[in-house]
Amino acid sequence: MAYELPPLPYDYAALEPFIDAETMHLHHDKHHQAYITNVNGALEKHPELASKSVDALIADLAAIPEDIRTVVRNNGGGHANHSIFWTLMGPVGLPHVGGAPTGPIAEQITADFGDFETFKKTFNEATAKQFGSGWGWLVFQGGKLKIVTTANQDSPLSQGLFPILGNDVWEHAYYLKYQNRRPEYLAAWWNVVNWAEINKRFATAKG
Ligand code: MN
Question: Residue 158, CB half-sphere, CA atoms under 13 Å: how many?
């Protein structure tokens, strides 16, 4: 079955003033939809792959026929990354959104980075430096949290890594409000991070 755009799990204006409603409309309804349309188009040529979840599809790029591999890598990756991304954020004002992390992820951040401020600074610096379009991620590898970046729509899943948290630094994610000021967007983004969801994903990453 063809992939479908998952509805945004909150109102388009729920992330204001940190991420504006117009950006969310374009980002979710147009950009995410385009990745889905493109990956669905590619899979029409190889319908035997259509029963796979998008995460399973991009976790094994070597299994994708060569004639559609790049399209699947870019657009299947775009679908997978954005499907995660919406859930990593939540409405401003909810107790588990923004502010300092709580629960097991808070303890692991303290263990691996010293404190939350140092973690944020390290994540923001690494992600600000991602040249061109890409993503910054938090993964759990060898018993430790690790910050990694990927170019374009490459997913950590393709490297066997489960993303716990991630931020989109394509210009389409921030340009309307922040223009060229990526570091300002990165700093503001922590106000909408959904720590309840991050703790769920951390539990999955630990297995
Ligand atoms: Mn995006």
Answer: 23
State in Å: Cα 42 to ligand 1 middle.
20
Question: So what's the architecture of 21-87 in CATH?
Answer: Orthogonal Bundle (1.10)
Please state which architecture CATH assigns to domain 103-206.
3-Layer(bab) Sandwich (3.55)
Q: What is the pLDDT of residues 133-189, one digit of tens each?
A: 999 999 999 999 999 999 999 999 999 999 999 999 999 999 999 999 999 999 999
As annotated, the residues of the chain forming the CATH 3.55.40.20 domain(s) are 103-206
Distance 31 CA to ligand 1 centre (A): 7
- Cβ neighbour number for residue 148 with a 10 Å cutoff: 17
Sequence letter at residue 43? L
Give 54-100 pLDDT, tens digit per residue.
Answer: 999 999 999 999 999 999 999 999 999 999 999 999 999 999 999 99
Centre of ligand 1 from the C-alpha of residue 90, in Å: 16
Rounded Cα–Cα distance for residues 131 and 29 (Å): 26
Query: 185: CA distance to ligand 1 center in Å?
Result: 13
Q: Tell how far the Cα of 7 is from the centroid of ligand 1, in angstroms.
A: 15
**Distance of CA 182 from the midpoint of ligand 1 (Å):** 14
Is residue 176 within 8 A of residue 166, CB to CB? The reply is no
